[in-house]
Amino acid sequence: MATADKIRLKKTIAAAEGYLELGMHAHALGELQRRGKLTHSSSRACFLMGESLRELSRCREALIPLRRSAEINPDDLHVWLALGWCYKRTGQLRRAIESLDRGLSYAPNDALLHYNLACYWSLACERRPALNHLAEALKLDSNFLDLIDHESDFEPLRDDPGFKMLTGVIV
């Protein structure tokens, strides 16, 4: 990549990050789209494009740049989380689980990945992997216990004795 292109890409990424911080998702997307192929050559730029689309509730479209980002830089956990989030919201729960599993291959001790996997396995009505990932998330970061009561993804497990024992719910 030529030096001028590197400079343009760096400025585009900085502008998009700024827009996203300010909640100006459409502006961030426009900034990234304006650079076309240059954007698609960068994992970070593709991730930001996916995040912009995700924030605009365009999850199906967000999958394209997010997959490209993962292809370029597969060890970025944020990409795997974003992919999982978008797959879940587009009714592709198995792909959401696969994405987070892939993220775990790079960071097996990431509590957020385990917590989200517990949510997704719960939604899939797969008790054992849901409880295993939830136990691991809580072992790694007990603060996740505070989120469980308000997490609708755990509705399929609420009456499960193992879930109650793990979360300290008293009947």
UniProtKB/TrEMBL annotation:
Q: Which PROSITE patterns match?
A: TPR
Looking up SMART domains in the UniProt record yields: TPR
Q: Is RNA-binding there in the keyword field?
A: no
TPR repeat boundaries? 77-110
Q: Does the keyword NAD apply?
A: no
InterPro entries to which the protein is assigned, alphabetical = TPR-like_helical_dom_sf, TPR_rpt
Q: What Pfam families does its record include?
A: TPR_19
Q: Which UniProt keywords apply?
A: TPR repeat
Which protein, by its recorded name, is this?
A: Tetratricopeptide repeat protein
Organism this protein belongs to? Posidoniimonas polymericola
